Amino acid sequence: MTAIPQHPCILVDGSSFLFRAFHAMPPLTNKAGMPTGAMYGVINMLRKLIKDYQPQYLCVVFDAKGKHFRHELYPNYKANRAAMPEELGLQIEPLFKIIQALGISLISTPGVEADDVIGAYAKAAAKDKLLCIIATGDKDLAQLVDDSTHLFNPMNNEVLDRAGVIAKFNVTPEQIIDYLALMGDTSDNIPGVPKVGPKTAANWLQSYHSIDNVIAHAHEIKGKVGENLRASLEQLAISKQLVSLKLDLPLEYKISDFTIKPADNEKLMALYTEYELKSFLKDLQAFMPVPLGQNPETEALQSDATPIEHDTILSKLNFEALVEALSQASLIAVDTETTSLDTFQAELVGISFCIHVGKAYYIPIMHNYEGAPTQLERDYVLQALKPILENKDIKKIGHNLKYDLAIFAKFNIAVQGLAFDTLLESYVFNSTASRHNMDALSEKYLHYKTTTFEEVAGKGAKQVSFNQVSLEVAAPYAAEDAEVTLRLHNFFWPELTKTPSLMDVFQTIEMPLMPVLSRMERYGVLIDCDKLHAQSKAFQIRLLELEQEAYTLAGEEFNLNSPKQLQEILFVKLNHPILEKTPTGQASTAESTLHELALSYPLPKLILEYRTIAKLKSTYTDSLPLQMNAKTGRIHTSYQQAVTSTGRLSSTEPNLQNIPIKTEAGRKIRSAFIAPPGKKILSADYSQIELRIMAHLSQDPTLLQVFANGEDVHQSTAAEIFNVPLSEVTQEQRRSAKAVNFGLIYGMSAFGLAKQLGVSRGEADSYIQAYFKRFAGVKNFMDDIRKLGVAQGFVETIYGRRIYFPDLQSKVSMKQKAAERAAINAPMQGSQADIIKKAMIEIDAWLQDAEPKVVMIMQVHDELIFEVPAHKVDMISEKIKTIMTSCATLSIPLVVDVGVGDNWNEAH
Q1: Whose CB among 78, 168, 260, 553 lies 3.0–4.6 Å from 603's, allowing a Cys bridge?
Q2: What distance in Å separates the CA atoms of residue 62 and residue 153, rounded to the nearest whole number?
Q3: 160 and 63 inside one domain
Q4: Which of residues 801, 834, 852 is at a domain's end?
């Protein structure tokens, strides 16, 4: 291994990095739906190469379209390669244009592969006595390494000289061709010796030095692998030819032609703008200033960059004047500054207010660094502010007010007049936006760059708590938070009022729900730590059993948690088919891949069970006791109100949404969520709510009749699609019908249904066709939603919540089809979220005055969980069921199943 000296000749394996960038980068697109992630990744890599190594010569080499000499030599070469993804293919032409506009040479030679071209030019560079660096992640090119040619992998900054190749592969560069031939390559469909992986191939070459000697001594090699070698002798010659690079190509260019030319900045500006490669465009604009007026976004950022006026309140006189001003205000923005994001651990450091845009106030109460000025006493400040904060007539605005409510609640202040939360305004305005934090919203909508927490408190290990930040720095930062919150509200609220349904979703669902969630979080959930510890021990025993079973199936011990070792066992030793590859070209051991392999092979199925139990153990049975609050003896999840695009809640630390209910292991974990003495856990769960919403939205008469009659919807569907009497429906038919019912509302294709049911695609398609024939209204609804979504870019819930799908206009058909499937489901899932939120709001209103005391403690998908007095279970059950079934009016009745027990598992 060695470092790269500056000014080398660099040959870039463009094809290798095109695929790696495509898989490694997030699925970026521009507004027109054009994918840009692979372009961004490759360009970023090239820019970094130029910046870091200032190459004397640079050329990017790509594979040309069409077949080449290896296909003539071996017709099955790369026969099992999937076609290039459409969203990658669309990026190639614009990427080529950008590379050429950067002044970088680009080669694509028909009849050969990029590796051959790279090899030929590497040899030419050696003749010119130049150090040649090949930028690649492809091990095949290791055969080129010598004193004048090294490999460099920008993905991990690995540099391979001769010693590096030996250290990495345990063979010399001269032996790489033989090494590759012995192993073969399943991705390129190059035959090797079955069951021979890197270790065996390297051992043979260390013993016999070359593939010819390995063949000559084939009779000496014992066991099954020896038999495989002797059976493969005839094909090894072809394998060696396939992996050997063709270095005698006629060269169209001289190395000196690869000198980097001046960039065509105007062309780059147009390309970066068209494909919205904003970071590159910003760098380019630094060298090509755009006059104000020609770039409105840049102008706005500059014009809004004036500091916000702020007052730091340190004296009683100034504080009393602020209190008077706040008392007279009809609308105020408020924000707290604390020592922690964990509301139970957080100490209040200061409070900021804003009444009018442009001026804000910061009241510090606990900056206690050495030399800090004297500040007003906390109790004095809070006692004076309490009447204002609890005054319903003084409307409050905040950003993520749920956090501030929890902080004030610690001081017995129940904030009233909760009017606006800019986090929720942003979320209702566009739930599919990737970020709703204040810094991102300010830059996006106000064109104003806020001061970040890291800029005032430091980063990483050097970061200090906010109480240690000097007031000279802390005060303008804290005041800015309140002022920007008010400005964001002034942007969002007029936008929401343009669409009455969105304004209604905000005012009647999201804002009223926020204090409900705050109360649930603060109350928490009681857990049985002893039971969880016992479950952890049982899980550990099962994990050890699974390990031993895995060793038996694999024929050797290996680390089940190591993807690399699992790859070796599954795909080299056991020769399971490679179904998918990782961004770095390795055989995938992802869960989706293992599920498919588990249909045919025992070890992948066992690995899946191992992973499931290991995850439940680490995430829940080991972690939940550690997350229990020492003061309350409970765990306190955080409900995320502005994360999912459809309006569903999610939860973190711990995530209560992902505890499985259908597995024994999941049920054991749920049994550790317990009721305190004298109380019971009550679970109220909407029954088949998304199917009922589908019936309401589609107005399909057959489906409406099924629910109106109180029939088993899956049994009824089975009777319809299999054309049998209701009484003769078998369990297998009902299971298939259930898969159809739920699959179709999630946009499942015939292929997906076939995979789930284990039937042929034709049979699955016949189920779907029979379903749509009997439930034509559902088919019409899906078609209409698809068309409407494509036309307007969004779909709506029953209550008018909008769910945007930018990929509905994507040029990539696979992305567009996926967006269409999601758009079909979104009205059901989003309406379900709206309904259960409305139920929570109405139940919470009842609970505030309910006697005896009932507490709503959790929300998980379609289910609400309560702590209820044991002697009042029946009365409370009926009241909760009544509220939940009447909180929405559909064409058919909502049904709620209620269960009661000493723990969550018993109740559900």
Answers
A1: 553
A2: 16
A3: yes
A4: 801
Cα dihedral 372, 375, 378, 379 sign = positive
Strands (DSSP E) along 674-772, which ranges? 679-686
Domain assignment present for 42: yes
pLDDT exceeds 80 at position 510: yes
- Region of 901 (left: φ > 0; alpha: ψ -120 to 50; beta: rest) is beta
Residue 363 to residue 376: CA distance in whole angstroms: 8
- Summarize the confidence of residues 711-740 as an average pLDDT: 87
786 and 722 share a domain? yes
Task: Among 587, 606, 627, identify where a domain stops.
Answer: 627
Alpha helices by DSSP H, listed for 275-417, are 278-287, 296-303, 316-328, 378-389, 401-409
458: left (phi over 0), alpha (psi -120 to 50) or beta: left
Domain assignment present for 841: no
Residues 708 and 596 in one domain: no
Average the pLDDT over 627-640 and give the result: 93
Lowest mean pLDDT among 282-296, 400-414, 465-479: 282-296
Are 318 and 389 part of one and the same domain?
Answer: yes
Q: How far apart are the C-alpha atoms of 413 and 394, rounded to whole Å?
A: 15
Q: Which region, left, alpha or beta, applies to residue 699 given φ > 0 means left and ψ of -120 to 50 means alpha?
A: left
Q: How far is 737 from 753, CA to CA, in rounded Å?
A: 11
% of the chain at pLDDT higher than 90: 60
Answer yes or no: is pLDDT of 303 > 50: no
The answer on 367 and 473 residing in a single domain is: yes
In a shared domain, residues 607 and 699: no
Q: At what angle do helices 689-698 and 776-792 cross, to 10 degrees?
A: 80
* Together in a domain, 487 and 544: no
Burial state string for 382-396 with b = 16 or more CB within 10 A and e = fewer than 16: bebbbebbeeeebeb
**Mean pLDDT over each residue of the chain, to the nearest integer:** 89
Give the length of the chain. Answer: 908
Per residue in 571-604, pLDDT tens? 988 988 888 877 666 888 988 889 888 888 999 9
Segments forming the whole domain that contains residue 381: 309-498
Q: Are 323 and 451 spatial neighbours (Cβ–Cβ below 8 Å)?
A: no
pLDDT in tens, 25-60: 777 788 777 888 889 989 988 988 888 888 889 999
CA distances from 884 to 11, 363, 678, 888, 898 (A): 66, 43, 25, 8, 11
- Check pLDDT > 60 for residue 305: no
pTM metric for this prediction: 0.73
Domain CATH number, residue 31 = 3.40.50.1010
Q: How many domains does the chain have?
A: 4
Element (H, E) at 779: helix 776-792
Window from 287-291, 883-887, 889-893 with minimum mean pLDDT: 287-291
